[in-house]
Amino acid sequence: MSLDFISLLRSFAVLYVFLYHLQLVWSPNHVLPGWFGVDIFFLVSGFLISQIVLDKQSDTNFFEFFLSRISRLLPTLLVVVIVIVILAGKLFSQNALVQIFDDAIGSLFWINNFLFVNKIDYWGRDALSVPLLHTWSLGLEMQFYLITWFYLVLYRKYYNKNALSYIFIIFQITICLISFLFFWLYLHSDKGFYLLQSRYWQFGLGVLAYQVYRNQNPFAFVSNSKFTTIVIALILIGFTQLLNYSNFRPVADILILGTLAFFLSSCHFFHIRPALGMKNVVQYFSNQSYPIYLVHFPIIVFCHQFAPGLSIIIPILLTLVFAYFLHKFVEQPFRYSYRESRIKISLQFIVFTISLMGLYGSKILTIDQNTNKVVEKKEKHVSKIEKFNKYVRSGYNNNARSKLFSKDMKPKILLIGDSHSADFYNILRASKIFEKLDVKGLYIPRACGNIAHEDFNLNLIALKFRNKCGVKRIGEDRSKPWLLNADTVILVSQWKEKFLPFVRNLLQKTKEETNGKAQIILVNRKHFPNPLKRKNENLKFFNYPSKIKNINSTLRNLNEPGVMFLDFEFINCKKEGSFCSNLDSNQSLLSFDGSHLSPAGVAWIASKLEKNNFFEKLLFKRRN
Question: Which structural domain range is residue 267 located in?
């Protein structure tokens, strides 16, 4: 039983790409070089398109060839794009949906590789928020098909004239070398990654492999070698390691692809007996390579953005299941139908695509007003940042900061912390019971870590802040009037990792200074995407960065007796630090700088705390 080498390469390439994208989320310290799988796809595409054009005399008409490519690629792609747009409409904000729709149009016209240049860093953190990012390679493939068809038709016409035949091969080698030079020169830029002039050589090696294979197959002896599989495996393992070092990438890449092209030119089929069941497995993944490639990355993006913490098994199973149904009910019916019906169906798909864009274009126009509101809100955040800063601090500074408690019988609330305590004052002010409370505050700058007390080593604080932090220690005379009279002490801060070992001492010291009679509440660190810095600020939902999640987890696990813990991750997220709200029901950003609350954010958090009956706990009166 022989094993098809093309099928082997296809299945290897798609599984390699799949594993690379999985490790971006589930194993960030990855070792697999990400480009290798796609490069093999390009090599195989060059080989197969040469076989299609050179061996099928009926494909002499460019329009017929173009439609055959559309009927092969478009139906499955269109289904995936429609599903992604529908899901994005449910999960992303309206402004972000417009960008995803632009990516969808670009993918259907195979131009996303141009659109992503200087716009999206494929290796950056924002790549995992773009569900159609992987369609850049489909654009390259279609552009290669359209250009190479003319070359292959001319080569077929003059194939029997030996001199001209070799001139064509020399021309192809020259173009590949020029393309490889572009690839090397632009190795660390988007031009070297997304554009055809830097990638053509990878397709071109496949074209050359088929031309050599067709030209009397001079390397046929390789296909009879018993060591063929072993040699290929050793070469791939050895040179793949070089791909881990970016400076060696061009050398390793051309050696690997050149080796594979050599074997393609000599042994289109392996004449070996594969292990039991191996051929079926390889053939399965080869047949489903296109739908697997299309669905795997959007599934990983949606899992990463909206359901982090899932087992790696979930995206694997979802990918295999969706790919199976796409292959069976979409790809196969179009791929294996008669040519005449394929052309008709392809034309129908073109009309349907244009209609779809018109419908969604109308929908975008209907939400354009709301989208512009989101953009305008962001611009206001940028232009009026000082106004929001004043909003955070004004009420706190005027009414609470360093003011003594009144002598009435209202429950006395003491806020201790940095500007986040001012934020919390605004939350209290938005509550229904605020008039029943006497709220005051002791301000400790963020540089002091909100844990300055008598036993704290001030050497951990920057030199210019030490004196300022030293006089603000809890336990100094200035703090005692508040601590001795407070019914509830709320500790709020933008907690820093280096200060975490001292938080327990802070809680214990605070209990001592209140004589153990006050209610103490520790509030963890809140977080939002910064609309001034992040590209995904218009997501409806977001996830806490792992660093802040770790900080909050440490605070949560203190379990200090007599201390209540207020968890912002629980308040604003559907899961712990995951699927957190970034916009309110009016599409207003909850934070203006990624840390402090906007007026909309204050109202949002206050409403959440009302539902959890948090404010009722502040009516507590200390024991006498």
Answer: 3-348
